[in-house]
Fold each of these.
Amino acid sequence: MALIDTILIFVISLLIGAFAIHLGAKLVIDADVGFGRAVVTALIGAIVWGVLSFFVGWIPLLGPLLMLVAWVGVINWQYPGGWGTAAAIGLIAWIVAVVVLYVLAVVGFLSFDALGVPGA
């Protein structure tokens, strides 16, 4: 049962992260960018964040900054518009993920974290 719970939490967290990135991209780019791209972005972003967290996350200030830049870099790689656009997508994605997770946590559905959106 623990494995099923873990898989379910992984999938739900990934979908929340992807939804947040998708909404951010739709608002910033103002084009149909596809939900599948957001899922891939959230998954790759989570992997990059996790790997960098392991290697440099312990370095005060610099580690988290490098992790954030790498995450925005993944968004920049996946979506057109450059680093400013990617940062705007990331900021909106973070806000959306925090709001969705807060609501789900308040109703007791899941804990307050999402795969693919740092710190959410």
Amino acid sequence: MNTTRRTFVKKTTFGASLAASSPALQAARPADAPPNVVFIFCDQMRGDAMSGLGHPNARTPNLDRMAREGVLFENSFVNGPVCVPSRKSVFSGRYPHEHGSLTNQGRPFLSWSGNMCEYFQRRGYKTGWVGKNHTYERSEIKNLDYASIRDREPFRAYNGTVPPHWHADVYWPEEDCYPQVNSDHAVDFLRKSKDEPFFLHVSYFDPHPPYMAPADFTSRYISANMQLPEYVPPGALSKRLEEFSHAMGQDRMTRADLTETLRYYYAQIEWGVDKQVGRILNTLEQEGLADNTIVLFSSDHGDFMGTHGMVRKGMFLYDSLLHVPMIWWAPGRIPKNQRTTALAQGIDFFPTLADMSGGSIPSDLPGRSLKPFIHGERDADDRVIYTSAGFDDLDDEQLNLTLTPEDTKADPRHTQVLEKHFDPKFRSKMIRNQGWKLILNESHPAELYKMDGGRVEKQNIADQPQFASTRRTLENQLAAWWKW
């Protein structure tokens, strides 16, 4: 889909009226115009997957540059472990149980009114969207001034022989693959939008599975050199995670399976994310837009990617799936080479972008502006963050991994289990601060973790008497946030 709102407005009376009244559609840009906004979002990138953060497997020179020239949030978390609830939270500024999607099955997507894109358009911004949607209803896309929507390449389609750790080299020419096509369209939008303030969302599919990249990139990574995280068995956290690992066949993955998957994952980040971010930053500089543009980079959720001996995602509220990168880049507007340990969450993106661009923050949003932390006016505080999800329990049939030749003609086993697990039959919710995390599930026992500033849950201590007081305090806070 590649359309513009200007094309749409010529065809309707409503559009004609809107075109006449919207400052975003007028040619001249006043000298005191607000700064542009470029919001770059990738899909399924862990928060630690950057070479600048010391990750042994990652190669991210452009993201590292962003961090050196801007502000990095080390403790940024999303409000859902999969695409739809997380993306809806980011653009609505509301928690999943407020916008109605606890899983990827949650519908409808967002309407136009009251959400981030409409907010910027009302302020006179030209609005553009490139890449993956999974956020707004298709009928609402026409409200954008420019839209170029696509998801995954057709060659990534699932089939019955794909293992849960699927990876392969890309066999299309790089210039035809969607990461480059999305960047081409984003660059074109930037070059044609100099005369008016703009809000551009660039949404990349990568590094979402299947983990794929061109051989020029995958050949730079050697499986034997990939370093796995410290192994914490799924059973140390919950029976639910242990059952899911078994149902996905991931408890049968060898070390070679894992390291080969890691090789493709980090190659995909370098190609499908980091290289593309570099193109956008370079375009902003080449076109003289960098000194009047705020760039935000983040991801909609993470990936197990070796943690607990697993890969991919699931309906779990663990840090490997919730911790994401967040980098702010605005030359001359914010400090350089700064990091903050302040806790941030997806619902903070909307109020922060509003505040950073000089606008008023909608008063009914539950998140907060991170501007004081970006400018170094505040240090990390005692804030807590909340996350929620829906899930279904696995039955005996799903835990039986025996496949017949007939089964492989249908959906692959890992897709069946994943989709079943995404059914929002039960609910889970989490509260997290710098030191502690509590997870409550409707059909499973509570989980309590002592985080101590870390991002890996190592042992569920919910039933240990010496931590009863901490558990009660967190339970009360969770109950006040969302009553079941």
